[in-house]
Request: fold
Amino acid sequence: MTGSSVESIEAQAVTGFQSANDLDSIPDGGFQAWVQVVGVFFLFLNTWGIVNSYGIFQNYYQTEHLAQHSPSAISWIGSIQTFLVLVIGVLTGPLYDTGYFRTLLVVGSFLTVFGMMMLSLSTLYWQVLLSQALCVGLGMGCLFVPSVAILSTYFNKNLGIAMGLGTSGGSLGGIIYPIIVTRLIPKVGFPWAVRVIGFIALGTLILSNVFMKSRVLPSATRSWSSLVELGAFKERPYALFVFGGFISYMGYYAPFYYLTPYAMAYEITTMDLATWLVSIFNAADFVGRILPNWVADYTGPLNVMIPFVICSGAIELGLVGSFDQSSLIALCVLFGFFTGPFISLPSTVLVTLTPDREKVGTRIGMALTCIAISMLVGTPIAGEILNRSGFANVWVFGGVTMIGGGLIMIASRLSITGLKLKAWA
Reply:
């Protein structure tokens, strides 16, 4: 045994931390590991749960709060928020890899809660933009990469189901937060409706901060010049998967933002039911994050994600001919279920495409930055299409981009497995 090996073992014994690349040491279960899943659940409740609820804010802003502004201008609030959740992964990923997990949790939790409280005081467009888009978006961005990266240090064979259960918090948030907003605004007004969400975020994020902890530490100090691994884009599977994500996510949020206004504009449903459509989406999405992830542990995450992405695009195209209540609700349920893996599986795929586990945060952050640009422009493009040519072309835009992205992901899989249909990927 070499001196360096002895030193490494002694360091692990003293600190309790393991190497991220020592896959045999990953517990793949146990009390502490599942506590992290609960912590991730609450992080997603207050990141993607809030993001997935923006459709109800979009509708309220268009009809009441910011009615003097166009749907496209209002959609920039949600798009910038989502963009920041993803794009600052290029910073938070490397920070996570270099040992700043706790700092990111604290800063992200503070900014998220503070931003929601400031939103409750906002009455003008620029105030909403600063509080909801910038402050909340930055806070959620600090929380997102650590929340998906940490599970890869506690789970290996069961990573898919662990990620599915953790990320399902985003679906629950997307169910309860729209209901809170729509029910409380008529009773206590917009400010207190938003404050209630802020207090829920405060309580649940405190739990995540208390119980979550890193299991691994970086093996060595990394220079800032190495914190963006551009060489990853020379790896065909990684580059094609990221490009496929860039295309498909461009159309992902169009139904989340515009289905409620669509149902109300064409009087397909009652106004009350129209406000429930976002919650219906997310209820189906809850199931769609768990079952596919469980299957992914046995068949491979990329093998599961590809058909779900393509089917999501086909379902969104189906909205073009949906003018009655029953078909609209059915498509809502189907779209919610099939888009579940859009949030729960990409990080699992990226873990499998990362040979060096100590660079998981960096690689996830890089991929999310690329996808963030797509999501930043995608929904405003859909809003501009709505202004110029109506809802039908919004659904066409979303469906075509999602199917196109899924086809590019097929190319990523082929670059790994060739034409072997049953290969794990």
